[in-house]
Amino acid sequence: MTAFFSGKPPWLRAKAPQRVGFVKQLLRDLHLNTVCEEASCPNLGECFANRTATFLIMGPACTRACPYCDIDFTKRPQPLDATEPERVAEAVERLGLRHAVITSVNRDDLPDGGADQFVACILAIRRRMPQTTIEVLIPDLCGNWQALAQILAAQPTVLNHNTETVPRLYRRVRPQGNYERSLELLQLARSQDPSLYTKSGVMLGLGETPAEIVQVMQDLRQVGCDILTLGQYLQPSPKHLPVERYVTPEEFDHWRQVGEEMGFLQVVSSPLTRSSYHAEAVQDLMHRSPKSGPTRTP
């Protein structure tokens, strides 16, 4: 679906896609999905032109119907494909990625929420590209912490789970999500593997107040979250939640400074920031603020 961009301010005009054919053809050849395409990411042109993408596994049909998200929830999820992890790993190799990002649709129909498929992707990439750092952007797994432990045991470099918005707006924005559960996931990941970098993202422009933004940031720091992304919510179509406010670049810069003062190791904050936007910057962070662990060196 094409993003719905009516009435956008000038700072939200993303560059037109250029030189994206190689990545698109590779994805088609390997029968892979990306969140870039399925969620109508405004940065698709930039990322594909730089030969990078965020792989969307176990999809593209999602079992949740979040009214902010453009991923399809009307289709029945298909059985897992055992060949998908190797195809993801082949794409990582052919793209020459130094940092690979894997995310998924919600698969509440699976007992482990898809944890085994995440693990298989991590292991497949490691076999082909042992020096590539790996980031997994995971759903909340319906609170199945044994499934979370499975993913952590595979030792991704970055464990990313988005809180998305402030608690007051959860019923409207993430009706099947739970704010406290998301914080618990991040806290457990930190406690079970102190060498892991944890990460979360928040959308602005849905009606949150400055005090609520600060509270979410403080909550994330309290559970040891290392990396924070802040970006503008954009309405994918007239059927999705409307934008309540367009946040200026200056305000995003303010929130970056606030986050850095709170102690986040890295804050990426701009109108077009998305969860995996410039995610490879974690490698610079690893040199500045290294953590011990057998798989943490890029």
What topology does this entry show?
Blueprint: H1 21-29, E1 33-34, H2 35-38, H3 44-49, E2 54-57, H4 84-95, E3 99-104, H5 115-128, E4 133-137, H6 145-153, E5 158-160, H7 170-173, H8 179-192, E6 197-204, H9 210-222, E7 227-232, H10 249-262, E8 266-269, H11 282-288
Parallel strand pairs: 2-3, 3-4, 4-5, 5-6, 6-7, 7-8
Antiparallel strand pairs: 1-2
Helix pairs in contact: 4-5, 5-6, 6-8
Name the shape in a single word.
globular
CATH homolog superfamily: Aldolase class I
Q: In which range does the helix fraction lie?
A: 25-40%
Number of helices: 11
From the alpha-carbon coordinates, what is the Rg to the nearest angstrom? 18 Å
Order of strands, main sheet, comes to: 1-2-3-4-5-6-7-8
CATH-level-2 architecture: Alpha-Beta Barrel
Quickly name the level 1 CATH class: Alpha Beta
**Oligomeric state:** single chain
Q: Spans of 5+ residues with little confidence (pLDDT < 50)?
A: 1-5
Overall domain count: 1
Strand/helix succession: HEHHEHEHEHEHHEHEHEH
Q: Can you give the mean pLDDT?
A: 91
Number of strands: 8
What is the beta-strand fraction? 5-15%
